[in-house]
Amino acid sequence: MNEEEFAKEQLNLEKHKQDIGFLQNAHKKDSDSVFTKHLDASDLLQHIEKLLMGYEYDSEEETYKPLTKQIIQNDKVLLIEQGAILDPNFVRLSIGYLQTFLNSNVFLSYIESIEQINAIMWDVNVRLTRLLHPLKNRFDAKTVEVTYAIIENSIYFAVNRAYKKNTLDALTKSQHSIEHLGEGQKSATESKKEFKIFGF
Hints:
The protein contains seven helices and four strands. It is mostly helical. The protein has one domain. The protein has a two-stranded antiparallel sheet. A hairpin with a 4-residue loop joins strand 1 and strand 2. Helix 1 packs antiparallel against helix 7, helix 2 runs antiparallel to helix 3 and helix 5 packs antiparallel against helix 6. It is flat and about 85 Å long.
């Protein structure tokens, strides 16, 4: 191998190393994005809050729009915003209560037994009853019941993500897989480099 060929080989090797580094960084960024999204409940919280505040999601325009209703005023039919389906103060309290469960600290915690989950949900039901039951005298009872179910079920699934470290173990395994993939690419590059330099 003459000097010119050797120089070309070295340039190719350096370019290949840069490509591998880029791929490893890309995997890391993708994994960070997946992990963040998996642990972030802000979209769900926003969706529940918007529903309770009288909005609906327009999938075509990908935005929330206020629900409207018709009223008659001065012999004219007017279209106005419906407004919150419950008292806005209770909506804020409900979302605040949800946030204490729908967060990464809870998702990544360790709940050892079903009995612990049952105890948590018992307390949740007591608190939700105190919070929402009085609204049945002021708002549609079915609306209050559906709101109760939305909050209760969201908390139940959030707590179950911590059962036996479900979420923590899943993220740990994913991280190990990504690291293993990066190490495999690095080893392949080093093997290829040896082969080219010595010409065997």
